Prior knowledge:
By secondary structure, the chain is α/β, with parallel strands linked by helices.
Amino acid sequence: ISFSFEGIHQAKMLSSLDMAAVGLSSLAGIGECRTLKDLNLNSNDLRGKIENDIFELDNLEELTLDFNHFSGSLPSGIGNLKNLRLFSCADSDLSGQLPSSISKVSNLVTLRLPSNSFEGTLPPELGTMSNLSVLDLSKQKSAGISGPLISFSDLSAIRKIDLSENSLTGTIPKTMLSNSIPSLIEVADFSFNQLSGSVPASLGPIIDVCYLEGNYITGIDDTLCERSVGDSVEQFGCDAILCAPGSYNPLGRQTSTANKCMICPTTTNFFGSIVCEHILSTSLDDDDKQNLLSGTSFEWQILKLFYDSCDGYHWHYSDGWLEENSSFCNWEGIKCVSSSAEESVFSINLGANNLVGTPPMELFLLPSLSSLSLYSNPIDFSFKGIEKAKRLTHLFLDATTLKSIDGIGKAPSLKEAHLRFNSLERIDEIYQLSQLTYASMSNNKIVNIPTNLSDLSELKVLLLKDNQIRVTLDEMVFPPSLRMLDLSSNHITGTIPSSFLNTIPTNGDMIVDLSGNLLRGIIPATLARFERLELYLRNNYFDGIPAELCMKTNWNGGSVKSFGCDGILCPKYTYAILGRQATNHDSCQPCKTAVYLGSSKCFSEDYNNIDHEKALPSFHNEVAITGVVIFSLILAIFIWSAFADKT
C-alpha cells in the first residue's frame, strides 16, 4: 500500500501499530506519535539509514524492524529509547560496529540483530545490561564481529545468548556468564568463531547448553568430563562437549547413542569438527570411504552441509531442519526408507524454496537417494560426483539457472531428467544415460543435438520444445521405445522424410509435436502405418496431405475420423486456433493470408506483403501457449497411463 505518517500526531490514543509487509518505504513523520509503545515494521522496503524519527518515540517498548534493506550502522540514537524492552532488526543489511549507546537502553530484555553485516568488536558496555534475557548477534555476513569474546558476567537475567558464525578470537573467559542463573540458561551459542585455547571448568554448570563447535579449541578441562553436570556428559564424557581431534559429528559433539563422534582422517587438530571435509576429494580408497559413509550420522552431516551451503536459514520452508532431537526423516522435504534397522534418505524435494549457492557433491553419497528435486531455485548445480549416486533415478532441476550438464552422463541409474527453463546449449551427455526413460529439456538454448538416439533403448519421452535446434528430420534416428516426441518451436528445416519414425513400432500410441518449425512439402503417406497417432504440425509451410492419412480414424483423438483432413491440418486459406479442427466448435475459418496448411492465426491483408519466413518465427511465439496447454494435457494422460500399466 501507499502510506504516509502525516497527521499521525492526531492519534492521541494510538499505542500499538503493526505495519508488517505492506511495502512501506519511509518513516518520515512517525516520530510525532509519542504514544506508541509497540511498533512492528517487519518485512518492508525501508532503505538507507534508519531514520531518526523513530528514535523520538520515547515511550516505545517494542520495536521490530526485521527483513528490511537498511544501510550503514545502527544509529547511536537507539540509546534514546529508554523504555524499550524488545528491539529486533534481523537480516536488514545493517553494518559497522555496534554502538556503545545500546547499553543506555537499560530496560532492554530482548536484543535480536542476527544476519546483518556488523563488524568491529563487541562494545564492553553490552556485558553490563543486567535486564537482558535474549541476545542474538549470530550469523553476521562477511567477516562478522571480531575481537575478544567478553565475559558477559553481569548478565544475571540471561536465558539465550547466540554469537555464532562471527569472527570472535581469543580464549573463553573464565568468568563467562558467572553471575547468571544456570538453570535459566537455555542456549549459550559461541560456535563457528575463531575461539582458541581450552574450554574452562567454569562453564560446567551450563555445559549441556553451551555450543562451541567450529572453533580452534585445543583442549577441554578434565573436570568437565568427569562431573555429572548433565545427562549428555554423564553418558558420553568429553564427546558430549566436543568431538576430539581426528573425529567429527554433524553437531560437533555426541548427543545420543546414534549420533557418535566418528573417525575422520581429514579433520584438523581442533575439537568440535562437524564435517569430514569432502570425502569424495580425498585419496582414500573405496573401502575406507565406504566405512566413513555408513550410518545415520553421516547422512545427517551431509544434509547439514547441504543446508549450510544453500543458505538454509532463508529457505521458505525448513521445518525440523537441524533440530537437535529431530530425525532428519521428519525434516521439510525429506522422505526416508528403512534399511538394516536404520533410516536413510530416499528423496529430497525442496523445489521453489529459495535455495541459493552450490549444493554439495556429498548429496550424491546418500546411499538410498532415489529422487532429487530442487527445481525453481537459483542454485549453481554441479554433476561432479554423480557416479556415486547408485540409486538416483529421478532428477528435477527445472528453472535452476543450469548452464551445463557436464558430468551427468556418469549417472549410473538415472531414468528421468527434468531440465526445462534453463540456459543449456549442449546436451550431448544426456545420451550416455542408457537407462533414461524421460528427458525434458524444453525452453533452453539448445542449437545442436545428437541425431542418432538409438542407444537410448529405454527412452519413452523426449521433450525439446522451445529451443533453437537446427536439424533436418532425415538425420534423426529414434529408439523403438519412444512414445512421445516434442520438437515444436525450433528451427527444424526441410521436409518430413518418408523414413521418419521408421524405427518405432506401429502397434502402440504415439505423440509427435513438430509445430512451429520451418518444415515444408507434403506430409509423408508412410505415417499411415501408425494406427493411433497424436500429430501436431501447425504453423509450418506444408502444401499437402495424402488422402490415406485423412482416413486414419484413430488419429488425433478421433478428430480425423470426424473431420477428415481438417482433423490433421486446416486447408490453405483457412485457420483454427490449433491449426486443425478438433471439435464441432473450432472449425477451420476462412483467412486470405493463410497461404499454408495448418495456420493457427489469421493475419491482416498486409501479411501478403512481408517475408513469410522472417515473420513466421515471431508468429510461432505468439501461438505457442496454446500448444503448451494441449500438449501438457496429453502428457499428463500419457504418464498416468504408464503408471497405471506398472501398477
